[in-house]
Every structure is written in C-alpha cells, then in structure tokens.
Specification:
The protein has helices at residues 2-18, 22-34, 38-47, 54-61, 65-77, 97-111; strands at 52-53, 81-86, 89-94. The protein is of the alpha+beta class. Strand 2 (81-86) and strand 3 form a beta hairpin. The longest helix has 17 residues, at 2-18. The radius of gyration is 20 Å and the shape is elongated.
C-alpha cells in the first residue's frame, strides 16, 4: 500500500511540474490569438517564404498600409516577425520557425481532401 501511495504522490508531483505558469499560458494564448485573425494569417503566410516591405505586403495582399502596419506591430510584439531598416523602408520577415511550421501544418490540414 505504501508503494501505491508513493507512486501516487510521484504522479501528482509530475502533474504539478507539467502545469503551465501564467506567463507561458499568456504567451501561448496570444500566439493562438495571432493565428486566429485572417489578415495576420495572410501576412505570416506571405512572410514564410521571403521578407517584404510594408508597402509590398499592402500591395500584394490588397490591404491598406495602416492595416498592415498595425498587424505587423502585433506580430512583432509576439516575436513572430522581425524587421530590418533600409533607408526609410522597413522589411519584415519571419522570426519564429516553430510558429511558421504550425501555420503551414494548419494550412495543409485545411486544404487536405
């Protein structure tokens, strides 16, 4: 009986260690929030393959520059995209291959027949 209690306590301890802390929960929920918006998905999908300026993204996706800038700011704050400055232009690219892989898998799942 004592071994069963010890095992049970060990299992409880393991489960406690597997629980997520508040910061991790927040980051994960924000990441899924980022991936729940169609405009952000379109931007991330475009940035999967190459970097683009804000103007390029707006033109390619037929969005206003203001909309693109707003969404890129949100994605940058989550470290899903990064940017580099060239003169007065900002060029954005992916910053997290894990999220891009998750996005690609979700797209593959959605388009799989």
């Amino acid at each position: 009986m004592t071994d069963e209690i010890k095992k049970s306590n060990a299992e409880v301890q393991f489960e406690k260690e597997q629980q997520l802390d508040e910061e991790t929960l927040f980051v994960v929920s924000q990441t899924f929030k980022a991936l729940s918006d169609p405009t952000r998905i379109r931007i991330l999908n475009l940035l999967c393959s190459d970097e683009h300026s804000v103007n390029d993204i707006a033109e390619i996706l037929d969005l206003s520059q203001s909309t693109v800038s707003h969404q890129l700011r949100f994605l940058k704050n989550l470290r899903l995209v990064k940017f580099r400055r060239e003169g007065t232009s900002l060029y954005y690219s992916k910053d997290d291959d894990h999220i891009m892989n998750l996005l690609k898998q979700a797209i593959e799942h959605a388009t799989h027949n």
